[in-house]
Amino acid sequence: MTNTGYRALLAQREALEKQIEELRNAERGDAIEWIREQMALYEVKPEDLEPRSSRGPRKQSAPVAAKYRDPVSGATWSGRGKPPRWIAGQDRDTYAITD
């Protein structure tokens, strides 16, 4: 039993990978030049390409005002997230803050 077909395919793959690498290296300069032209056209600076996380901390959003108040305990809820037990399954209009 011979593996000549398999070995021939491996040799072809190696030759193709070499051609791919050569073409990538040959065309890389043109690609970089095109990118530079586009960056100049749209006035994009290299620092504009950095991920947002490297630009500093994100601003924290302001706390959300409470929309509902428990008349018994005085606890409040903004209406976001899982409803607390005191309002779950009940008509929210009765707990709405009307200030």
UniProtKB/TrEMBL annotation:
Top-rank taxon: Bacteria
Q: Which GO terms describe its cellular component?
A: nucleoid
Mind telling me which Pfam families this protein's record contains? Histone_HNS
Instruction: Name the UniProt key words of this record, in alphabetical order.
Output: Cytoplasm, DNA-binding
Which stretches make up the DNA-binding protein H-NS-like C-terminal domain? 58-97
| Family label | Belongs to the histone-like protein H-NS family.
Q: What is this protein called?
A: DNA-binding protein H-NS
